[in-house]
Amino acid sequence: MEHWIKDKVAIVTGGASGIGQAIACEAAKHGALVVIVDINDQGAQNTLDLIKKNSGVGTYCHTNVTINTDIEKMIKVASALGPIKYLANSAGLQTYGTAETTSEETWDQTMDVNLKSMFLVGQQVIPQIRKNGGGGIVNISSLQGLRCQKNVLAYATSKGAAIALTRSMGVDHAAEGISVNCICPGSVDTPMLRYGAGQHGNADEVIKEWGSHHPIGRIGSPSEIAKTAMFLWSPDSNFMVGHSVVVDGGLGSIIL
Ligand SMILES: NC(=O)c1ccc[n+]([C@@H]2O[C@H](COP(=O)([O-])OP(=O)(O)OC[C@H]3O[C@@H](n4cnc5c(N)ncnc54)[C@H](O)[C@@H]3O)[C@@H](O)[C@H]2O)c1
């Protein structure tokens, strides 16, 4: 039987790196027509190379997800490719600081990239999905939207709000056959995490140490998050509405 995502357009923001790259590759593996949405041109080319190596179909649209006119252009490119039915919002920025040390600029940038982008992209993608008979949206929040480390005020706030945005969008569009859910990953081995780990010493050693705090004994891989995203897009999860799925190796469940 043909895979449900075959020949359907799947838009992946942040598709040039990490979790977004893994979602783009996983979708393409099953026959989706993938649109990589990012500002990192080299990373996007790497994702396209990975997709094409596996005989998948993908295209890249340089798009700043905080700019409406960029999103408009991206929608034109995506709809020329085929019926837009799926969206993963994985573009994101990790920022650090407390209420005292976070600058207003960092606060605004964190909110714009991690949160407002989900609203702006969703606003333009939802009518397309509706026109094409329904589909799914997966937002990448974070375990830090539910509980957090110290010194991540703006990031944790943006991720908590992404959970609320997902709930609200899910409730608004469920009856139209548009599912909206989010994933709250724990630590996942991506360039973003490696950059953070590098601030504390040798990245490999720090990641091993962080992994040991997860009950499963390691951090996650981007493909583990991508497989969850595929499930949330799939008809198998149709009864899940505005939900947040924690995929964290048990990190959020243990008292350290
Ligand atoms: N890696 C983790 O441990 C982890 C854990 C929980 C949640 N997350 C979340 O997962 C998502 C993906 O993170 P990742 O670890 O893959 O990070 P990453 O840095 O590897 O990838 C993020 C991508 O977003 C893109 N991006 C940033 N600003 C953009 C903009 N304005 N317009 C378009 N694209 C933009 C970047 O260019 C990059 O390709 C993020 O939202 C992050 O907060 C990551």
Account of the 3D structure:
The chain is an alpha/beta fold. It has one domain: Rossmann fold. Helices cover 46% and strands 16% of the residues. It is built from eight helices and seven strands, in the order βαβαβαβαβαβαααβ. It has helices spanning 18-29, 41-53, 68-81, 104-131, 153-173, 191-198, 203-213, 222-233; strands at 9-13, 33-38, 57-62, 84-89, 135-140, 178-185, 244-247. The chain has a seven-stranded parallel sheet with strand order 3-2-1-4-5-6-7, with helices on both faces. Helix 1 (18-29) links the parallel strand 1 (9-13) and strand 2. Helix 6 packs across helix 7 (203-213). It is globular, with a radius of gyration of 17 Å. The chain starts with 8 loop residues before the first strand and ends in a 9-residue tail after the last strand. Bound molecules: nicotinamide-adenine-dinucleotide. Nicotinamide-adenine-dinucleotide binds at residues 13-14, 16-20, 38-40, 43, 64-66, 90-93, 113-114, 140, 142, 185, 187-188, 190-193.
